[in-house]
Amino acid sequence: MIAKTILDEFDHEMMSSIPKSSSIAPSNDPASSVRSSAPVFVLGCPRSGTTVLFHMLLSAGDFAVYRAESNVFNLLVPRFRGMRTLRDRQELLDVWLRSRLFRVSGLEKEEIGGQILTDCHNGGDFLRITMEAMARKQGVRRWADCTPDHLLYMEEIKRQIPSALFIHIIRDGRDVALSYVQQKWSHPMPWDGGEELAVAGLYWEWVVRKGREQGRRLGADYREVRFEDLNANPERTLAELGSFIQHDLDYERIQRAGIGSVSRPNSSFAKETESSFNPVGRWKSKMSEEQLAAFEDVVGEFLDELGYVRSSPRRRGLRLRAGRLRATYLTMFEMKQRMKATPLGRRVNLKNIGMEDFEEPASAPAPGNKD
Question: How far is it, in rounded angstroms, from Cα 195 to Cα 279?
Fold first, then answer.
């Protein structure tokens, strides 16, 4: 129903400019020491700013630079039956080594192949083994993951990687929906032609709500941040997040390193110039009054819940159209997610792990980030 984000490429040139010792000085408190080396998951509904925040972490230094979405829990785990048997792990390894996920890792098969076959028993093991190998090779202390769909698997990730920390970035659903439609990622049923914005908005509500529900159960290892706050006051927002993950997220250093979307804005609206680029409140100029009223009829209550101010008058109850759309698509998203935990999960589409059988020319520049 909703297309996945496109994988980015590993930028070798950027790595040389990243400081290796930017983390906060180690504390004598054992709990603080563990937190300062814990893996960090930057998650959220796609098009909510996950990539720019992730690239800010990488630009801060002392994180393994892996400019791709790992897609472990949303794709690899269901496709390879949870990686429980040697046969599953061998099949996983054969596929992963031919994917872009491996090509951009900077690793060699010999560095991780044996350990995956012998020590990997679930998605958490696989992610930890591969990411820790990258961190060792790059000479840094910790790693981060930015697969937006992993927002739906936070509790499973926490069970398998107990030290994991989670940052959930939330953005105004009107801007998210606009970006989805611009990317042609929203696909209503044939009889709902013209409802692309509404369907994208319902997906945003479903994903964010599911993430917040899990986040409440994760307690102190979960933190929410607003995209709008990151854009308006990055220094303060990063300082607060740095305290949460025990890492020095110095804004000036991050700007100097400028990995990916930190220096190249990640906009769905390619015609915007650098001077006119403003990703906050884009809906105010790009949605008509009719579109806004129709959109807010469908997801307005969730906008209210998150503190985003509606632009159109609030109506009593749900109109027939809004009620039907909500019943149809929220149920559909839930059913599709549940099917991944059944044998049907073996049929998940692996196109997003990049199985192209070609090598990028050594001199080719890294493509711009698309998430």
Answer: 23
Whether residue 370 contacts residue 51, with contact meaning beta carbons closer than 8 Å, is answered with no
Q: DSSP H helical segments within 190-247, as ranges?
A: 196-218, 227-232, 234-245
Task: Give the count of beta carbons closer than 10 Å to the beta carbon of residue 85.
Answer: 12
Statement: residue 22 has pLDDT above 50: no
pTM for this model (two decimals): 0.85
Tell me what pLDDT residue 130 has: 98
Handedness of CA 335, 338, 343, 344 (dihedral sign): positive
Q: CA-based angle 65:145:187, to the nearest 5?
A: 120
Q: What is the mean pLDDT of residues 120-149?
A: 97
Contact in structure between 57 and 65 (CB atoms under 8 Å): no
Q: Report d(CA 88, CA 333) in Å as an integer.
A: 27
Of the ranges 56-65, 258-267, 305-314, which is most confident? Answer: 56-65
So what's the pLDDT on residue 258?
94
Structure tokens at 290: 């009719």
Cβ–Cβ < 8 Å for 170, 306: yes
C-beta atoms surrounding 366 within 10 Å? 16
Kind of pairing between the strands at 222-226 and 144-145? unpaired
